[in-house]
Amino acid sequence: MKSLIFFVALLSLLSLATITKSQDATFLYDSCTNETTYTSNSTYQANLNLLLSSLVSNATRNNLNGFYNSSLGLDPDDVHGLFLCRGDVSKNACQNCVALAAKEATQRCPVEKVVVLWYDLCLLRYSNRAFFSTMDQDPGVTLVNTQNIAYEPERFNRLVATTMNDTVTQATSATSGAKKFAVKQVYFNEFLNLYSLVQCTPDLSTSDCNRCLRIAISSLPSCCSQRAGARVLYPSCNIRYETYEFYNTTAVALESPPPPPPVIRAPLPSPVSKPKGKDRVSTVLIVAISIPIGVSIVLFCMGFCFLRRRGRKNRESVEENDGENLPDAQFSSLSQYVLKNENWPAPALSVEKEEARTTYITFSKRELKHK
C-alpha cells in the first residue's frame, strides 16, 4: 500500500514538473530595427517605460484573452505597444512572460524604437508608429526542428499541409473579440502523432488573420520539408507543428467553445404500441364491419345486373310483339314501328283501337312525305 502511494505521488510530481516546464517563458528571437532610435532620458524613453509598465499590469486581467494594446504620448514621442500570450497558457504564466519580455526588451534593444520579441509563451511588440489592427509579416522568423522524418516523409509533408490548413480554418472562425487561436492533433503512425498550433492577434480582422496564417503556411515547403517540427513567427501571427505535445491540452479543452447544437429534425411518427388484448379486439371489430359491407356491395352488384338484364329482355319482347298486346300509351310513341308493320294482321281490335291505328298510319306516312 505504501509503495502504491509513493508511486502515485511520484507521478503527480512528474506531471507537475512537466506542466511547469511547459509554462516557462523561453526566449526565441528578437527584432530590433536600428533605423529609428531614441536617446537616453528622452521623452520617448519615458513614454516607453510607462507603456511597458501598463502592459505588465494588465497581463492578468480576466477580460483580455491574453491580449492587450495601448498607446502613450504625442507625436513625435508617441509609443504604441501590445502583448499576445499563447492561447493555452494560464494568466500567471502570461504575466510572468510579459514581465520578462518587458524587462529584457530594453536590454536586448536599448535604443531602438521598433522592437518585436518572441517567447515560447508570449509576444511583446512596440513601435513609434500605430500598427494596431494591421497585418504585418515583417519581420519574419522561421525556426526549424533539426530532426527529419525518415518513414514516409512525403506523406508526412502532405499531412502537415492538410492539418495546418484545417487548424487555420478553426482559428479564423472565432467570434469577434475572442482568441484567434487553435490547435489540432492527428495520427501519423503507431509511433508518431502530429501536433499543430496557429494564432493571430485578436485585433486583426478574420480576413487579415486568415491571410497572415496562409502566408506563413506557404513558406513551410521551402524551409521545412520532411522536418519533424517548425515555427514561423510574424508580428501579427505565428504557426507551429511538432511530433510531440508542446501545448497544454487540458487548458485547450477547458477553453474550447462548445460545438454548435445539432440540427433538430422532426421525428418520424412511430406506431403507437397498444396492449395485445386491445389489438385483438380491434382486429375482430374491423373484420365484423368489413364482411357485411362486402356482402352488401356484392348483393347490390348482383341486383343491378339482374335488373339491367331484365330490362333488356322486356325491350326485346316489345320489338317482337305483333302489336296485339301493346297498350294504348305505346301506340303514341312508335310511329316508325307502326309504319313498318302497316300490313300487320289485324285481329279483332276494338273500334277505338282500329281508328287510332288507321289515323296513326296516315299521320306517319304524311310525316315521311314531308321529310
From TrEMBL:
Keyword Protein biosynthesis in annotation: no
TM segment ranges: 284-307
Keywords in alphabetical order: Membrane, Repeat, Signal, Transmembrane, Transmembrane helix
PROSITE patterns registered for this protein in UniProt: GNK2
Keyword Signal: yes
Domain Gnk2-homologous, first and last residues per copy: 26-131, 137-246
Record's signal peptide: 1-22
One Pfam family, short name: Stress-antifung
CDD domains: Gnk2-like (cd23509)
InterPro entries, per database record: GNK2 (IPR002902), GNK2_sf (IPR038408)
Protein's recorded name: Gnk2-homologous domain-containing protein
Provenance organism: Salix brachista
Lineage of source species: Eukaryota, Viridiplantae, Streptophyta, Embryophyta, Tracheophyta
